[in-house]
Specification:
Strands 1, 2, 3, 4, 5, 6, 7, 8, 11, 12, 14 and 17 form a twelve-stranded mixed beta sheet that branches. Helix content is 9%, strand content 37%. The chain is globular and about 50 Å long. The chain starts with a strand and ends with a helix. 42% of the residues are buried. It folds into two domains: 39 residues, Roll (SH3 type barrels); 210 residues, Fumarylacetoacetase-like, C-terminal domain (Fumarylacetoacetate hydrolase, domain 2, Alpha-Beta Complex). It is mainly β.
Length: 252
């Protein structure tokens, strides 16, 4: 089942999405996707991975990390499907990052790799945009690279874990204005989803709704205002966002 959060006028609704992409509210109302504002489908801590695909590491001419390179995303960075993404003024290089996201379904503390899949509630898609101008150290992404307003679209929905039994072999793709730019597979992750749950839960408790965004394949490129970026994870969904200028984003 696909579950989403949307806003209809001033009302925030939890909906399911049927096979025809019609949204069904809890009271039975059926809504066309174009009638609503899509909200991020989950909204707790986001644990994001850097350098977690071997080909992407090679693309950046770095050595593969010996343990997961994890950083956190702030709430102000998060936005939803079809919402505008703001490219900051006076930057040279801002790129997309298509990522599979595992959403924690129940509290996880000191979970073993063999148990890890039992703690996943579902999966969604993230586009973890980065402003490369300020990337001082790939191993410790700083705030100006990864925590800008609107630069973490999530969605459109969460797919139940039972509907995606093998997250380790999914196509991950990005299109810019309809042109395919990224074409990878979760099979190429250095640290897979069960490993990441074991790793993180060894020293903290993961709560329901927490998200692990698992890194991106090779093939990143610059995007600018006017571009439309679509990222897709096989079996999960397709997340699309237009790039706008600061003036347009802030209504100046």
């Amino acid at each position: 089942m696909r579950r989403a959060r949307v806003r209809l006028d001033e009302e925030i609704l939890a909906v399911t999405v049927d096979d025809d992409d019609i949204l069904v509210a809890g009271d039975g109302r059926r809504l066309a996707p174009e009638r609503v504002e899509w909200l991020p489908p989950a909204h707790r801590t986001i644990f994001a991975l850097g350098l977690n695909y071997a080909a992407h590491v090679a693309e950046l001419t770095f050595k593969p990390p010996s343990e997961p390179l994890v950083f956190l995303k702030t709430a102000s960075t998060v936005t939803g499907h079809r919402r505008p993404v703001c490219r900051p003024d006076n930057v040279e290089f801002m790129h997309y990052e298509a990522e599979l996201v595992a959403v924690i379904g129940r509290a996880a503390h000191r979970v073993t790799r063999g148990q890890a899949m039992d703690y996943i509630g579902g999966y969604t898609v993230c586009n973890d945009f980065a402003v490369r101008d300020y990337l001082e150290n790939y191993y410790r992404p700083n705030l100006r690279v990864k925590c800008r307003d609107s630069l973490t679209p999530l969605g459109p929905w969460v797919v139940d874990a039972a509907d995606l039994p093998d997250p380790g072999n999914l196509a991950v793709r990005t299109w810019v204005n309809g042109e395919l730019r990224q074409d990878g597979s979760t099979h190429d992750m250095i640290f897979d989803v069960p490993y990441l749950i074991e790793y993180l839960s060894a020293f903290m408790t993961l709560a329901p709704g927490d998200m692990i965004s698992t890194g991106t394949p090779e093939g990143v490129s610059d995007v600018r205002p006017g571009d439309v970026v679509a990222v897709e994870v096989e079996g999960v969904g397709r997340l699309e966002n237009p790039i706008v200028s600061e003036a347009e984003y802030h209504g100046a």
